[in-house]
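Hey L., structure's done. Input below.
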Amino acid sequence: MASSADLGTDGRIQRSERSREAIVQAMLDLIGAGALSPTAQQVADRADVGVRTVFRHFSDMDTLFATMNERLTKEVESLFVDGVQLGPFHERLEALIDRRLELFEKLAPFLRSSALQHARSVFLQAQHDRNIRVLRRDLRRWLPEVEPAPPEVGDGLEMALSFEAFNRLRIDQRLGARRARNAIRRTVVALAARLDTSNA
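Output:
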């Protein structure tokens, strides 16, 4: 039978884990609701804990961002690891566009938050570079025809299928999701017309 000391220790561990989870969820909720640069005080208030509790679990806001990013990565992982990259070229192209835009719609507030704080966060700078590499590999996974094509074709497709292009249309040009998708699709299809699909 567990001693009262053991039970007390278990209770403290469980409370600590609940507090940590509440802090991460608070960060997700705040950014998802449009607070793109939440302060530690805002996170603490949302999680119903003290600011000192936030920094007892996370050494700084960068560490909290990193933990939040791990959660988000797991949630959207299926958009990269699932799916069959086979079939006619036009079907693969449409599937790539659909998956990419689904990803951006889901992660938009978090990517905007990262862009806002990019200059002062070593973690977010590294994460941005990693995201570019992941999206570049994903493009070539779906469209291996990019590899032998002139470099400017691949470069153009990367730009057209980037979050920056998506964000420009959705935020700066204030387009709805459907119109933004149509604009991106037309651009991507026009660029993809320069790929050699004779063996696709």
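The chain has ten helices and no strands. The CA atoms of residues 42 and 172 lie 27 Å apart.

-- N.
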